[in-house]
Design goal:
This protein is an all-alpha fold and 394 residues long. Helix content is 72%, strand content 0%. It has 22 helices and no strands.
């Protein structure tokens, strides 16, 4: 059963629904969305929201990427990124071979700095640069850690695996991101750093969140919170604890648990008031700004778009904030503006997301579906919107 030529998330939903032997009404009975909305999504007249995609994927027992069409190989090839994925996959697979006799690693301080630089590149959404350097850095730090083990080197290696996860997610290779998280824990356990392990549980929770498995996501957050008990009371521990609450708030929002959303955001705000902007802690963006941004995201996930837009007016992004995180906020704001009927403002927000983080926005499935939604809302497609649509491959 071939897919139609005008392929988008809605047509993929229709394709896999039919393969499962379900009518539109039959699928609507299995997901918390109306038959009317489902028909509009399948026809392309409404964008497929991330929560709807996750619900449909779960109902049909398929991966979310099957419906989003990720990875977007054509665009990745245009940006010369496809060829960089295989070396990363190999670097993650060969973790257990130990020291490479052909490598003479740099001193520990330089290797730690190299790991940090990779993280900074991803936060700046310089995805090509990070993907190019990552495999060799993993091999070099692995060799150094196996020859002269130290907590600093193992933590640096854990950082590189975290970078591999971030890259894989941004490029749409979710299977690879899961492998990277396994390697992250392998290195974190050797670093004897429970905070690294807690961050990894937070990231695993987001993986299950994307797939619509909210109960599992809550369990992973709780596991991360338990790991914090093994760490002394420090600013870093408070920042990680706050970030776990932020993750839990979005999971609760997707599950439509408004009380849990309020409780988790209140806890996160309490931690943020204590630690301030903690962008220096384990590659997180935790702090008062991120709490406010998550309030917006939570309202978007609960489909309270008016409240989301009111909260968005309170967001003041620091100049040194990670552009990857800032761009994600503007994508969320675009969705809220589109759903509220503010098409012109939504287009401006999407243009801002593209300007801040072009590659990340280009490969963001939510950005693609929102752009498609804006096209259907516009009586006459502005040139800027035409250019955005062509840019993301619509």
């Amino acid at each position: 059963m071939p897919l139609p030529g005008d392929e988008h998330t809605g047509t993929r939903i229709a394709h896999h629904r039919k393969r499962a032997g379900l009518t539109q009404r039959g699928l609507a009975q299995r997901v918390p969305y109306s038959y009317s909305l489902l028909t509009h999504v399948e026809s392309g007249h409404k964008p497929a929201s991330p929560d709807l995609v996750a619900a449909v994927a779960k109902a049909l027992c398929i991966d979310v990427t099957t419906l989003t069409g990720q990875p977007y190989v054509t665009e990745l090839q245009q940006d010369r990124l496809v060829a960089l994925v295989r070396p990363i996959r190999e670097a993650l697979d060969l973790y257990d071979l130990g020291a490479d006799p052909a490598i003479s690693p740099r001193p520990t301080l330089q290797l730690v700095a190299a790991a940090e630089q990779l993280c900074l590149q991803v936060r700046a959404t310089k995805l090509h640069d990070a993907a190019l350097d990552l495999p060799d850095t993993i091999a070099e730090i692995t060799t150094a850690a196996c020859r002269a083990p130290s907590s600093e080197l193992w933590a640096a290696l854990s950082s590189t695996y975290r970078t591999a996860h971030d890259l894989a997610v941004k490029l749409g290779y979710y299977d690879l991101s899961t492998v990277a998280l396994d390697r992250m824990e392998w290195a974190a356990s050797r670093a004897s750093d429970p905070l690294l392990s807690a961050v990894r549980q937070y990231m695993r929770a987001l993986v299950y969140f994307r797939e619509g498995e909210y109960r599992i996501g809550k369990r992973l957050v709780a596991s991360g919170q338990g790991l914090l008990e093994q760490s002394p009371q420090t600013r870093a521990r408070q920042a990680v604890a706050g970030q776990l609450h932020l993750g839990a708030s979005i999971i609760a929002a997707r599950a439509r648990d408004a009380d849990a959303v309020r409780n988790h955001l209140a806890e996160a705000r309490s931690y943020a008031d204590q630690v301030g902007e903690a962008t220096d802690v384990h590659w997180l963006s935790f702090g008062p700004t991120n709490v406010t941004v998550h309030v917006v995201s939570a309202y978007v996930e609960m489909r309270h778009y008016g409240e989301a837009l009111r909260e968005a007016t309170k967001v003041r992004i620091p100049k040194d904030w990670a552009v990857s995180r800032a761009a994600h906020f503007y994508v969320d704001q675009t969705r809220a503006q589109m759903e509220a009927g503010r098409s012109e403002a939504a287009l401006k927000s999407m243009v801002t997301a593209r300007r801040l983080a072009p590659q990340q926005t280009r490969y963001h499935p939510g950005a693609r579906d929102t752009i498609r939604g804006l096209i259907h809302l516009s009586r006459r497609t502005p040139d800027t919107l035409d250019h955005l649509a062509a840019w993301v491959g619509l």
